[in-house]
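Exercise 7. Predict the joint structure of the components listed below.
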Amino acid sequence: MVKRDMARLLEEAVRDAQRRGLIPLVALPDVLLERPQNPEHGDHASSLPLKLARAARMNPMAIAQAITSCIQLPPQVQKVTTAPPGFINFALHPAWLARQVDTILELGEGYGNLDLGGRKPIQVEFVSVNPTGPLHVGHGRGAILGSTLARVLAAAGYSVATEYYINDAGNQMNAFYRSLFARYQQALGLEAELPPDGYQGDYVIDMAREIVAREGDRFLNMPPPEAVEAIGKIGVKKVLESIAQDLARLGVTFDVWFSEQSLYREGQYQRAMAILRDKGYIEEREGAVWFVSTALGEDKDNVLVRGDGSPTYFASDVAYHYNKFQERGFQQVINIWGADHQGHVSRMKAVVGALGFDPDRLRIIITQMVTLKRGEALLRASKRSGDIVTLRELVDEVGADACRFVFLSRSADSQMEFDLELAKLQAPENPVYYVQYAHARIASILHLAQERGIDYSSGDVALLTHPAEQALLRKMIQLEELVETVALSLEPHYLPHYSQDLATAFHSFYKQCRVVSKNEKLTHARLKLVAAAQITLARTLHLMGMTAPERM
RNA sequence: GUCCCUGUAGCUCAGAGGAGAGAGCAACUGCCUUCUAAGCAGUGGGUCGGGGGUUCGAAUCCCUCCAGGGACGCCA
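Solution:
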């Protein structure tokens, strides 16, 4: 990776300068290199001299010159210059840049893979919505974020497992069961009322009708509690199937669908509670069992077991995370939660610490709310009221690729507006098509070359000296750095931005440089460049979970 | 009241201590006899919410105020 090479080069030069007494022995800051926005300042830049000036009690320019004088140019670098008030600028060597085409072609689909993670087992848990109804658009955001992170982490060399936590225990499920049973009775022409805390959505009615069609009235012959349970199970299965389908259409799949109930069946709950009890984090008062989070600096304690003896969802979460770290041995766990769970972050981390694990091994990403607009009309999503725009509807209208791209473009921290009308209206001008169009154009050139039977395998990349070719190359070689950035920051919104930059570099090259021409040698070299650009662009699209179309 | 997120071009958003603050859309001007014009080249547009502070240097860090959203249950 170029950036790392440059950083090492700089660091060695500083050490050398210190050894030779050109600059004093002072500690170095963490960040050594930046990427200058002005191309005149080279490909990489360092403001290290400015940062050292005070401690070194030297003029920054003098430091810059001292360091620069200790740099021995590697093949990657054409020149190193100093600039006031104290910058060191690195310019990559055009010949080296051109040679990266061959490197990328050799790596093929593997270009962009790193071994940053050392195969460490890492879990990404996301969506994890109660199986009580269809997913809405907010869930789509978490789904796309999670699945993209999983792809990038895998590329970065982690051993990634994706997981959906099924909240199939607790009050919400019970309300859903009873709602479904009421609709079932209604579907059979009986008088029945939806419970006051019930689910009003039409999908419950549809589901009840399906159950009647398939199973008849046999549940009426059971004692009502049994019937509710039996119908509920069928309902959950149906809902989960439809959730899985909706997600699959978005390119989101899971390695594991983990049941909350299993935590109780298989003893994880009991074991986790025993640990907390042994370590003195549990107190019983007011008829309930509490996790004494105040002992860990939290604002307040939290109930684990209610007065009626039933565990809270927090108790389930304790057992679940005990299971993740202790029983399944994940080194790192990433949870993606909606903004409405933000208040639970610190207590969750506290309890992980209380169980004996380093809380930093748990990283929780909060995705902010999505508001849907249809033109001027604001649409609020509430599952209870039944007034929702479902994820399925969104994908139907906008398409999976565009959905992924739009959601990925925003950082998880910022609330976003999704205007359905605009998304449809803008379709041809949408950046997603701009990026994919670049890929289709590349494919088209390569098809032409194939039709004409051009063998460019021995093309000489040294001919790639045109500014547009070099600009394209500069973008292409940033892919590895991008994968690293996203894997460390867990912020995939860099991907769509990079893909646009890459597409721009290609479109501009395409306009300025004829690829298949009468100049045979240049044609061969450029076909190589184009093939490498295709690899880079396709890889970027695939990391985002998008398709790379051959034609549009 | 407390805690979290956000406030950057007309709109949607990047930019997390460095060099005249960026992109897409929208607006305007040019460019198709050549591999896809879903494209390219260019123009206009900004008190980076306000005010203090730290720093050689702040959209970025600290304090404070304002505005929007979310969370503060023996709901999930």
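Discussion. Chain A is about 50% helix and 15% strand.
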